[in-house]
């Protein structure tokens, strides 16, 4: 069931991206935008579509914000992979944009993907004007210097810090770096429907943290071929991770607790939210 | 009169930026955002405020989109100055962000400034929901792969091209690189008022082109201390510019014609638009 739904969402998002990017000028930056948005789990876009469905909104209507958040996420990866940032050559099993093209193209590709996210989320078919304005404004806040960029800045600062991060600090870093966009995605459904966002905000906070802990566990236990990017990097770099702070068993226990918290937060929705509960379990169990 | 109005607008925008950035976390990226948005002519923000005033909207209400476009413009400069792009050490007479901090901070600073622009333009006090959504969507289109980023990509491609650009190609490049944001700024006023954007679109097209021609002339005639950035760079690099294509006198003549076109486009507004006419004259006469 979860697998089918994720597959359906990924298919819709992929086709939509082909169509949107196909309407842009035929230049290397646009080819790189297509490369950067290809593949991946589409977890964020899936959360948009699934939380919209939970509020009676059809996947086709939720597709624009779903594609938007995938563009936003892809932009962050393209910039994060740059030599002056994480310096990664491999992403989703493919050469990163600055390897396949060059650094300048990677900077511009990320920039244009961020713009495209705001273009998509404010498209007429997304819904009434207040929904479009709210989705854009909340996406901007989640992305910027009090959200994702803050998390990335804290991450970079941690690399040159003389003492490893505490659990509190690494949690704050994660809440920005991956948590903010996951939370936006999960709250998109109630926002589109004008419903209360609190239950899905609580779900997303736990989910986002569980996601990052699972990532740190994968960095230890995964192999690069399955994960699609270099593994063991954070450990080799001596960076504090949830695993280094909690131990491998402690991290796994914490991830399981968070999955439970995420599932409990959805009680108001009853069994309608079972796909989202399965999503939380999947996020911790995934191998890539 | 023009000087007073520009001074007033720059003051309002500067104070607003201080307030907005003062509410963000106290981290290097936010300090760099403040550095990157300091100074400059604030031409784009001024156009927002002045075209809003022309439609009966007070400067205080137009301040949010005015500050937004200055953030967007500042982001483009921070990324454009990066070593992998134009590699400039000096901007507005100050060290560029990657010089004062580092490349990673410059990438993140630009990214966060772009997000901030969309946050500001969708703020509640900007106006009704349809205005906020429209301003965000048109700003996204002006910024992305069919607007500013396209212009920058064409600019980079021109550097390695074997033949210099034609007048048609350089005009297209300019329309993206500087024209799209200038056009958005000039159309913000009628958009906020729900009025026809056509006269100001025509004004902005001529103004944007005149602005770029004046920039190319300054690159030849200006001195670095007054201009606030390196001069003679485009000429030394053998890049096609409006001056290399039209000659110095021809470029000056073309700029003057465009100022006339810009002024004529405002006839519907009568003498109410005199400040905008003076702005067009200023853009060509400026020394920095």
Describe this structure in words.
The structure is a homodimer of 288-residue chains. The first copy, chain A, has a single domain (2-285), classed as Farnesyl Diphosphate Synthase (Orthogonal Bundle). The first copy, chain A, is 72% helix and 1% strand. Chain A is built from 15 helices and 2 strands. Chain A has helices at 2-22, 28-36, 43-54, 59-80, 97-100, 103-121, 129-143, 148-160, 167-193, 198-221, 224-227, 233-236, 242-246, 248-264, 274-285, and strands spanning 90-91, 94-95. In chain A, strands 1-2 form a two-stranded antiparallel sheet. The first copy, chain A, is globular, with a radius of gyration of 18 Å. Chain A starts with a helix and ends with a helix. The mean pLDDT of chain A is 93. At the A-B interface, α2, α4, α6, α7 and α8 of A face α2, α4, α6, α7 and α8 of B.
Summarize the structure.
By secondary structure, chain A is mainly alpha-helical. Chain A has 15 helices and 2 strands.
Strand count, sense and barrel status of the largest sheet of chain A are: 2 strands, antiparallel
By CATH, the architecture of chain A is named: Orthogonal Bundle
Strand order of the largest sheet of chain A: 1-2
Gyration radius of chain A, in Å: 18 Å
Summed over residues and divided by their number, the pLDDT of chain A gives a mean of: 93
Overall number of strands of chain A? 2
**Strand-residue fraction of chain A?**
under 5%
The CATH class of chain A: Mainly Alpha
Number of domains of chain A: 1
Query: Structural class given helices, strands, pairing of chain A?
Result: mainly alpha
CATH H-tier superfamily of chain A: Farnesyl Diphosphate Synthase
- Which regions of chain A are unreliable across 5 or more consecutive residues at pLDDT < 50? none
């Amino acid at each position: 069931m979860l697998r089918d739904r994720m597959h359906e969402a990924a298919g819709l998002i992929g086709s939509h991206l082909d169509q949107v990017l196909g309407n842009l000028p035929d230049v290397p930056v646009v080819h790189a935008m297509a490369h950067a948005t290809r593949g991946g789990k589409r977890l964020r876009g899936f959360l948009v579509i699934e939380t919209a469905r939970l509020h009676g909104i059809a996947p086709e209507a939720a597709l624009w914000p779903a594609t938007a958040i995938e563009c936003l996420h892809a932009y962050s990866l393209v910039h994060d992979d740059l030599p002056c940032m994480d310096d990664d050559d491999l992403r989703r099993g493919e050469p990163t944009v600055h390897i396949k093209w060059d650094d300048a193209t990677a900077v511009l590709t990320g920039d244009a993907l961020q713009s495209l996210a705001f273009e998509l989320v404010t498209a007429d078919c997304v819904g009434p004007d207040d929904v479009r304005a709210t989705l854009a404004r909340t996406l901007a806040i989640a992305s910027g210097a009090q959200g994702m960029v803050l998390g990335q800045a804290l991450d970079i600062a941690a690399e040159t810090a003389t003492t490893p991060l505490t659990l509190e600090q690494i949690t704050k870093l994660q809440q920005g770096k991956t948590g903010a966009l996951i939370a936006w995605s999960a709250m998109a459904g109630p926002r589109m429907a004008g419903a209360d966002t609190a239950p899905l905000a609580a779900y997303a906070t736990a989910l986002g943290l569980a996601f990052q802990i699972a990532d740190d566990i994968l960095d230890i236990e995964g192999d690069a071929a399955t994960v699609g990017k270099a593994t063991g990097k954070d450990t080799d770099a001596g960076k504090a991770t949830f695993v280094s702070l909690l131990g491998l068993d402690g991290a796994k226990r914490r991830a399981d607790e968070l999955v439970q918290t995420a599932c409990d937060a959805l009680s108001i929705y009853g069994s309608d939210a079972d796909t989202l509960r399965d999503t939380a379990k999947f996020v911790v169990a995934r191998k890539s």
